[in-house]
Amino acid sequence: MMKTLQASRRRVLCGMLGGSAVTVGLPLLNCFLNTNGDALADGTETPPCFGTYFFGLGLTPGQWEPKIVGANYEMNSELQALSPWKKKINVYSGLKVYLDGHPNVVHSSGIQVCLSGGIAKTRDETDSSIDTIIADQIGTRTRFRSIEVSSIGNAVSYSRHAGGTANPAETSPAALYTRIFGPEFRDPNAADFVPDPQVIARKSALSGVTEQRQALMKDLGADDRVRLDQYFSSLRDLEHQLSLALEKPAPLAACSMPAKGEDSPAGTVVEDVIANNKLFSGLIAHSLACGQTQVFNSLISLAASTTRRAGSADTHHVLTHEEGADATLGYQAKVSWFNRQNIDGLAALLAALDGIREGDKTLLDRTLVYVTTDTGLAKVHGLENLAIVTAGSANGRLKTGLHVQAHGDSVTRVGLTIQQAMGVAAHGWGTESNETSKTISDIIA
User: Fold this and answer.
1) Which domains does the chain have, with CATH numbers?
2) pTM higher than 0.70, yes or no?
């Protein structure tokens, strides 16, 4: 049905109740959006979002790659759970990581190239990961620059700033709920907005510190000015966040507060991991829909995955090295089961994003999820033919529904394409043989 009403979000309903005049503000209805539901009525684009989803130990060669290249492909067995979103997904096969003579630091080198573009000297000395690069582009006007979650009860995150500083992950869905939707949550669709007096006081105090810093800078030498600037950088970030807290948020049609759930037991049992991943996925989706962040990182298993079945001591990682190939199937059946659990977790995330309607589209349509792993064939720590997936189109900036078959190209081609789609002015990405200036033109809209 074509919408005929373009109402103002400031419109209120007026009436009488018990002899007194009352006014009731309207929620953000579809009539506040354009016809397609992908922008506000004034033409302002709904903000694109970006996220990463990481799972350890790759997928089974021959069991995940689609047989058809291009459109109209079918999901292979280990990607079957993603079939409902096939038209919104791209699958990339044939991509690899080049070592250039560096040692293969197992369960680390693949992550470094997929997420940071190149091999680092150590596990910790990495360049900025792709999510922090994109957050610098799109995450400066949100309450949280990014949100990191880990479903395994371990606060590991592969989101890193230059120099190796990692963003710690939240391990408790209940704690994340409180962090996002607790007392400091500001409903972007609330009729009234009154700045918190305590925030105003803290903002004023920080302004005083800023003035003192500027005065002190004049009396310092060059080296001390650099050190002091680094010292105050965190205060500047805090001041920026306080400034945002004094502004009324832009309306977002799909924003609603989820019900607060209970955590599943934290740990490595697959059923618990999947349950926590589902809770995290719903919270991520609501935080994006409510404009609390535009960037997230979700981890369902470590690179050297420690997940296990209930009652078993055999971890996913151990099985990749010790399980023999099934005589009938021709591959490691137990390992393949773990692989499918990781993809089931991705399906839960996509379901949460695609389940939030925004006009004629969904939250997934304005999001781009970069799905990565650390190995090709985990049994030998291979770095060839890594299973890479992207989901969503970032507001139509990428074509979807394609199987892209590379022939030994570096995985950094996907990362460069993603950065350009998200508005990063990157003409190249990566180091040594992983450096590339070639985007994947087939998927650029």
Assistant:
1) 48-173+263-443 (3.40.720.10)
2) yes
